[in-house]
Amino acid sequence: MTQYSSLAGLYDCLTDNVPYEEYAAQIERLFRRYRQKPSIVLELACGTGSLTRLLAQRGYEMIAADISPDMLTVAREKCGDLPVPPVFICQDMCELDLYGTVQAAVCCLDSVNYLTDRRQLRRAFSRVSLFLEQGGLFLFDVKTPALFRAMDGLCSVDEGEGWFSAWRYGWDGRSRLCVHQVDLFFEQHGGYQRRTEEHVQRAYPREVLEQVLAETGFSLRGVFQGLSLHPAQEETGRLFFAAQKQSPTGTINGKK
């Protein structure tokens, strides 16, 4: 089945432990660190719009994109009461197409790992670069190979009123692909209906991400350990990248 179609209605229940407030705080810390005051912010792979809503409440004009129409339906409902509702668009990261430019772009919760080959990665970063103003920040986090390796073989279950879910994780060290299968069971007519989704992600070494950023017009400003401002010393857990768009001459705001 299409990724995040069956999951859309349950996604917020299944991810109620995600620290969205900490993600919003990390994004604003990095804006301050690099002296950025963006008014228009693009969020890629926005999902059900939890982070989108928090950033909009903090005063940013949001454009939010996701490949799943079902997730976007939930996101629109969640953000419909905001004074300035975000603009939601159904687009693949690799085919991003905006009407104008933005001053910052964010992509969180390891969505970059869903770009499963280097061509996709380069294409997505190129599209962000195309619509990002010179000097604008591109912020994203990734799961590292070490974190995916630690998840190999893990199983988890969750349940709520009228539903049950089971997750199974697998890791292939040679291809650096992580495949996790989600089985959802919905109570229906005295029994349960089963729906299954398969999710595939790739773990990229840090140097590959840095190379692709450089190839697509970005200057790397920092790589941080998780949701902190501590420079990443090793590839463990999550890494949070901050990159800034260069001018065609290789400068940022006219400076080397």
UniProtKB/TrEMBL annotation:
Residues 41-136 form the Methyltransferase domain. Pfam families: Methyltransf_25. GO terms for molecular function: methyltransferase activity. Transmembrane segments: none annotated. Keywords: Methyltransferase, Transferase. It comes from the Bacteria. The keyword Methyltransferase applies. InterPro entries: Methyltransf_25, SAM-dependent_MTases_sf. CDD domains: AdoMet_MTases. GO terms for biological process: methylation. PANTHER family: TRANS-ACONITATE 2-METHYLTRANSFERASE, TRANS-ACONITATE 2-METHYLTRANSFERASE-RELATED. This is Class I SAM-dependent methyltransferase. It comes from Candidatus Ventrousia excrementavium. The lineage of its organism: Bacteria, Bacillati, Bacillota, Clostridia, Eubacteriales.
